[in-house]
Design a protein that fits this description.
Length: 282
């Protein structure tokens, strides 16, 4: 096995039969009230592995926690911390997973599994991002934690996946801005809608929502009679997203009113046009 392979992978490969055999013939640790002091660190740890194999991550986390509590200076104590983070995450107990992962990072920052601990911490936020309508605080926290993985452990096996999830979380924030913008647009609150679409164009320009945001700006500005802004938004849309249905819709809207899709006036969109299309920053 390669040096960079996480020991966590080895831990998860242990079968239920091996875990039971590791008890050395003693009575296995049962559910419910257990006098853990009667068992060795190895026996308790292996019982935690067995519970994971039996799809009982909550009980597994409890066993790993007991290893850390009873045998804090043993070789298994460190592994028990990272396994707590993993087991709690499997159990969707994200707060406890974060706590264990952070504890591992604090105590063992140079260990080879520190990258995995940071990745688990990020996942504890990321996996709670399940729909656009939720509060976006978790998304921001996920982005920050994923950035830590990418910047602190760029050569780890988790960096590539962290980059992908970072992009998805970033796109999620843009989706939230679009949702709110559409809400205002449908109710003819055009200035409020424009503010949301502008955020997408300026701050989330690399996401999948930029083309629609530009089209919605065309709609909003035309509704307000601000034709220079609408034409400029259409020009940017035509240059960067000509093959999209959003461009086709904007083209019909503008040309239907006898307007061309070209930069006009002196506004924030004209500045975007100069920077992104003409390459002029002054």
């Amino acid at each position: 096995m390669s040096k960079g392979k996480s020991r966590v992978t080895l831990i998860l490969a242990v079968s239920a039969g091996i875990a039971l055999a590791g008890c050395g013939g003693n009575e296995s640790v049962e559910r419910g009230n257990v006098n853990y002091e009667n068992y060795t660190a190895q026996q308790i740890f292996e019982r935690g592995e067995y519970d994971l194999a039996q799809n009982d991550p909550g009980l597994a986390a409890r066993n790993f926690a007991e290893v850390e509590r009873l045998y804090p200076y043993s070789n298994l104590a460190k592994r028990a911390v990272i396994m707590q983070a993993f087991a709690h995450h499997r159990d969707r107990n994200y707060e406890e997973s974060r706590a264990a992962a952070q504890r591992y990072i604090d105590f063992y920052p140079a260990d080879e599994d520190a990258a995995y601990a940071q990745y688990l911490l990020a996942l504890s936020y990321y996996d709670q991002i399940d729909e656009v309508g939720r509060d976006q605080g978790l998304t921001f926290q996920a982005l920050q934690a994923l950035r830590e993985v990418i910047e602190r452990y760029p050569d780890s096996e988790y960096a590539t996946t962290a980059i992908l999830k970072f992009d998805l979380a970033f796109d999620h924030l843009a989706a939230k801005e679009m949702e709110i913008g559409r809400y205002y647009l449908k109710r003819d609150h055009f200035p409020a809608a424009i503010n949301r679409f502008r955020v997408v164009v300026e701050d989330f320009e690399t996401t999948s929502h930029t083309a629609e945001a530009l089209h919605r700006l065309v709609e909003s500005y035309l509704s307000l009679g601000l034709t220079d802004e609408a034409r400029t938004a259409g020009a940017i849309l035509g240059h960067n997203f000509r093959g999209t249905s959003w461009y086709e819709d904007s083209y019909k809207l503008l040309t239907g009113q006898g307007l061309t899709l070209e930069a006009a006036g002196d506004n924030w969109l004209r500045q975007i046009y100069r920077q992104t299309i003409q390459g002029r920053w002054l």
